[in-house]
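Troubleshooting log. The previous structure file for this entry was overwritten by mistake, so regenerating from the original sequence record. Sequence copied from the archived sheet and checked twice against the printout by T.R.
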Amino acid sequence: MSTLYSWSRLAVRTAAAATGMESRPTKLIYVVTKRCHSRCVYCDIWKVKDTPGGLDNELSLDEVRAVAGANPFLQWIDFTGGEPTDRPDFVEVVQAFAAACPDLLLVHFPTNGIATKRIEETVRQLQGTVRARLVVTVSIDGPPELNDRLRGIRNDFAHAVETFAALRKLLGPEQVYVGMTLHGHSGSCGHTTSALVDQTFAAINEALQKRSEAAIDWDTFHLNIPHFSSHYYGNAASGEKDGFGGPAHRAEIAAALRLAAGKPKGAGALAMRAIERIYRTEAMRYLAEGKTAITCSALLSTAYLSEKGEVYPCTIWDRPLGNVRNSHYALMPIIEAARQAGIRRAVVEQKCPNCWTPCEAYPAIGASPGRALLALVQGS
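Regenerated output below.
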């Protein structure tokens, strides 16, 4: 099946999702493991491995293959964690979906970048065996000292830059990105979030220059707004402690997004630049109003699967819907039951916790072309 045909099918199914005609999701967010050797102060996923039984009952590789085989309609998969590459059979996990999903177009995973050689070898193996486009985001959350403190690992910044440079050589500049999350902790270092964004961008390029590597541009530098989740990040209590949601904090993060929006862009793909601009515009709306003009695509074009087989509406809403071990590993019986129970309607009516995470935001942009175009105009 040709790549052009697959992309055409994704476009058609996305348009169908916009009208509510498409019944099957195009994208799966799959937490492959909660293993992680980072010790981030704003995320408690890494603590799971130190909890008795915390890593027990993860879907086995045979079960992953069963999930892939039962859901061959998927076209876009975010493999996340934890640190995805901390799962020893991560390559085989991705290969299982690539083999079972003939229309699979996009595979993405984030990484902390700590184990450069292992991550590089993982990407090399996937590059040689998976036909889908492979995109990797390397997490860097501040200039060196702040980043290392926030992520809890000595020399984390240096490792992440090394990993970014290695992966860019393998995949090219349009398939490897830096992701920075604008946490409330940033304000504790005496600098505004906007200043930290500038400092982080400059520090990355300084580190790349020392390695005789090409600089990044602002197209490569993605800014996330913080979110809190009980079932995923395990940081809901941290959100309350840090006071995210206060007007001053939200205004500071919005200012950082406006700063990035005004930076000169490189020669990156126009479509990605447009989507990023829409994401920022709606993120600023979310920070100001607590909601966006674009309807979330959870349980319409996206589904979320935990490492233990539990299906949730999304990364944020702690509303377990069922376990694939009880549905012969198929997603649709669980999703259809949730729709019939009014869970999708609650998302549309914004009776869920409300968020604007990239995991759900990017598919939502594609499923709401009219509103996305308006946001694009407003953000220009």
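The two ends are 38 Å apart (CA to CA). Archived copy saved in two places this time.
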